[in-house]
Design brief:
This protein is an alpha/beta fold and 253 residues long. It has 9 helices and 10 strands.
Length: 253
């Protein structure tokens, strides 16, 4: 069995008297697409925040490529290779799609300590332009490359955010409800795009998602949270058949 790329051991997280995560243990194998599901309030977003460094755990440990990252800040985890998207796309609304991606590429270079990166507002270097052009092609953003991000559709904003995350060249990409608010057609397109990107960039994925068609279209492994505790984890079909999972989340039938 390969060494996990990410491991969470005995994670507890509380906000005041409210216990949100309770002894959460999970691992991610390199290259897998691991989806976390659960009812609203199960603790999925809090788990993401703890794993990405936005929130500190109260107890437990987190390792990435066998390195303890429990006390590292979010930007330090990004530098190590952990990327993250959000339920609401985090983009620069007044910049064009192209400019957003230039900023993301140059931010990665600064995080990696590479000299010579110039501010996008002056003149991006040829290497930066080539990388941005490739991302635009990979994510099918050509038609809106010069459009202000604020006028993009919801689905296109999510695609832009995914492209910006890829610009950071992560080893692990965390996607928090990547199809939230999308139409059925956009969700189907998103599943195909995420699958293609995962294969092309050799990514390990960790996702939260509500839509079961999306979940079973992407997951190579599935974990179910309920009241801050993991009640099942394993192959998607085995988890789907678990009686407790069917009772608390998927429903009978």
């Amino acid at each position: 069995m390969s060494t996990p790329i990410l491991a969470a051991n005995g994670i507890f997280k509380s906000y005041g008297p409210v216990k949100v995560l309770k002894d959460v243990n999970m691992t991610l194998a390199p290259g897998e697409a691991h989806v976390v599901i659960g009812p609203n309030g199960a603790g999925k977003t809090t788990l993401f925040r703890c794993l990405s460094g936005e929130s500190r755990v109260n107890a437990g440990s987190i390792t990435f490529e066998s390195r303890d990252i429990t006390r590292l800040e979010g930007w330090q985890r990004v530098r190590l290779g952990i990327g993250r998207s959000f339920q609401v796309a985090k983009i620069f609304a007044d910049m064009t799609t192209y400019e957003n991606l230039v900023v993301a590429v140059e931010m990665r270079e600064r995080l990696q300590g590479k000299g010579g990166a110039m501010l996008w507002s002056f003149a991006p270097r040829d290497a930066v332009r080539r990388e941005v052009d490739a991302l635009i092609e990979d994510l099918s953003l050509e038609e809106m490359a010069n459009a202000p991000a604020k006028i993009l559709s919801h689905g296109d904003k999510k695609r832009l955010e995914l492209a910006m995350s890829l610009a950071l060249q992560p080893k692990l990409l965390m996607l928090d409800e990547p199809t939230a608010g999308m139409s059925p057609a956009d969700r189907a397109d998103a599943v195909r795009m995420i699958s293609r990107v995962r294969e092309r960039y050799g990514l390990t994925l960790l996702l939260t998602e509500h839509d079961m068609e999306v979940v079973f279209g992407l997951a190579s492994r599935l974990t179910v949270l309920h009241h801050g505790e993991i009640i099942a984890s394993g192959q998607p079909e085995a988890v789907r058949a678990d009686p407790r999972v069917r009772e608390v989340y998927l429903g009978h039938g």
